[in-house]
Amino acid sequence: MTEQRRQILEMLAENKITADEAEQLIAAVEGERQASPREAAPQAGPRRKYLRVLASDDSAGAGTGHVNIRVPLQLLRAGVRLTSFIPPQAIAKINAELGKSGVPIDLSELKPAQIEELIDHLDELVVDVVDETSSVRVFCE
């Protein structure tokens, strides 16, 4: 028995999660284990680890407005796994608020495989927006 599976069963025994939540977590852990041979296979290029956002605004002069954000893609993966710990009532409230904000995402429908597919597509993403005084660039590295 893996350490992750043991922890899930302990949380179930302590009534910290429901049987359905435990089942979802175990399925996610087993899915990761099955996906790992695919990750070990040689890939066309280097596996991207970060989403980078670079922005600059020189309209005020002296090059004062610069932003350089580097977000680990592993954060996306962890975020999807953490949604399985959110109680269903809270997910319904979160989904409603996201919908009001114009983000029509159902957190209960997010699956780790979908995030891997998204990350695979992000590998090819490059967004460049440039005008006379400012620029924004989004890419994976």
From TrEMBL:
Residues 3-34 form the YvlB/LiaX N-terminal domain. InterPro entries: YvlB/LiaX_N (IPR053959). It holds the Pfam family SHOCT-like_DUF2089-C. It comes from the Bacteria. This is YvlB/LiaX N-terminal domain-containing protein. It comes from Actinorhabdospora filicis.
